[in-house]
Specification:
- This protein is mostly helical.
- It has a single domain, classed as Arc Repressor Mutant, subunit A (Orthogonal Bundle), CATH 1.10.10.60.
- 45% of the residues lie in helices and 0% in strands.
- The protein contains four helices and no strands.
- It is globular.
- The mean pLDDT is 94.
C-alpha cells in the first residue's frame, strides 16, 4: 500500500499509483511516466521508485 501523501512535501500521490504501476509494467520508462504524471519533485519521485508492495506477502501472517 503506497502512502496517500508524500512524506516530505505532503503532495497527494496515491491516486497516481495504479497508472504508474500499469505503465511501468508495460515496459515504459519510469522517469517518463513520472514526468507525464507531473511529479517533478525528487521527494515524490522517490516515493514511487522506492516503494515495494509487501501487503500480499505479509497478509497471510496476520
Amino acid at each position: 500500500m503506497i502512502p496517500v501523501r508524500c512524506f516530505t512535501c505532503g503532495k497527494v500521490i496515491a491516486e497516481s499509483w495504479e497508472e504508474y504501476k500499469r505503465r511501468t509494467g508495460e515496459g515504459e520508462d519510469p522517469a517518463t511516466v513520472l514526468d507525464d504524471l507531473k511529479f517533478v519533485r525528487y521527494c515524490c519521485r522517490r516515493m514511487f521508485l522506492a516503494h515495494v508492495e509487501l501487503v500480499d506477502t505479509m497478509a497471510p501472517y496476520q
